[in-house]
Amino acid sequence: MTLSARDVARCGINKDRAGVASSVLARPARNMAPQKDKKPKKSTWKFNLDLTHPVEDGIFDSGNFEQFLREKVKVNGKTGNLGNVVHIERFKNKITVVSEKQFSKRYLKYLTKKYLKKNNLRDWLRVVASDKETYELRYFQISQDEDESESED
What we know:
The protein has about 150 residues and is of the alpha+beta class. It has a domain at about 45-140: Gyrase A, domain 2 (2-Layer Sandwich). It is about 30% helix and about 25% strand. It has five helices and nine strands; from the N terminus they run H-E-E-E-H-H-E-E-E-E-H-E-E-H. A hairpin with a 2-residue loop joins strand 8 and strand 9 (about 135-140). The longest helix has 14 residues, at about 105-120. The protein is elongated. The mean pLDDT is about 80.
């Protein structure tokens, strides 16, 4: 089958010097940007939980919370499967979670809130990010003016 010049122009097909039809899309791209080297992935994830204020006030047990984390943290979809991948350490009023596999800071916040709810502390404490790798337990700020206005009504 031979193509006329009009058919060739309509279909976007070019005839090269040998007379063989080749598609415009089959040509190699010109002036491609060089591919940049990808940065190596982060090998360890380290997060801290600062429990100072509630532990000093005696309403929060850091040892019990550490045990809760050891039981509830999932690795490869299974709880109690920490092995050598995730390390949970407690030093005074701070808990450090170090993981060699990807570990989400948001997951740590989720587990902390779950523990607070389980121990009926969720109404008084909240989990706040104090920096990129640290969460802190803080009390809700309740102003005295709101309490007085409610008691007058």
